[in-house]
Design goal:
- The chain is mostly helical.
- It contains six helices and no strands.
- The protein is elongated, with a radius of gyration of 18 Å.
Length: about 170
């Protein structure tokens, strides 16, 4: 009996919720999820490795940001499932669908912050495009989620830029 209960596998499904079943929106949300995962890891890397006179404010800010990203990733994956598609199952799968690239070397605090700014800006632009796509297809729930996330990334850009302002 237990074996039968545990046997089902997640797969793409058809939901009769009024949104055309297509992969466009789910693929766009998967890209946002994948980029968010990469950014979360980069933000944690900054959090762990930043040094210098602004250590504490950067350490605290990046902790708030990576915790927000962690929660957002779950919301994004659940939206993909609600759209009838399978969410990524591995980091390798996410990296293959991300537009952001992993860090390969340690940077100084200024370099790490500038990289986080650029990555947050890139995700915000992608969120804007995905929101517009969802709107064109009558998917208000995805549009709302994308707009909420866009506001978070725009706030992150503002806060990070305030740290490196000369």
């Amino acid at each position: 009996m237990t074996h039968q209960v545990l046997k089902p596998e997640a797969q793409d499904e058809t939901h009769d919720t009024g949104i055309d079943k297509n992969a466009w929106i789910a693929n766009a949300v998967t890209e946002v999820l994948s980029d968010s995962m990469v950014l979360m890891v980069k933000t944690q890397g900054c959090h762990w490795n930043v040094v210098g006179p602004l250590f504490l404010p950067i350490h605290e800010l990046t902790e708030r940001q990576y915790r927000d990203l962690f929660e957002a990733i779950d919301d994004l994956a659940e939206r993909i499932r609600a759209l009838g598609h399978v969410a990524p199952i591995s980091f390798t799968d996410m990296i293959s669908q991300a537009t952001l690239v992993e860090e390969e070397s340690i940077k100084d605090a200024d370099g790490m912050i500038k990289q986080l700014i650029a990555d947050n800006e890139k995700i915000a632009r992608n969120l804007r495009d995905t929101s517009a796509l969802a709107s064109r297809h009558g998917d208000g729930a995805t549009e709302d989620l994308m707009n909420t996330r866009m506001a978070k990334h725009e706030e992150a850009v503002w806060m990070l830029k305030a740290i490196v302002a000369a």
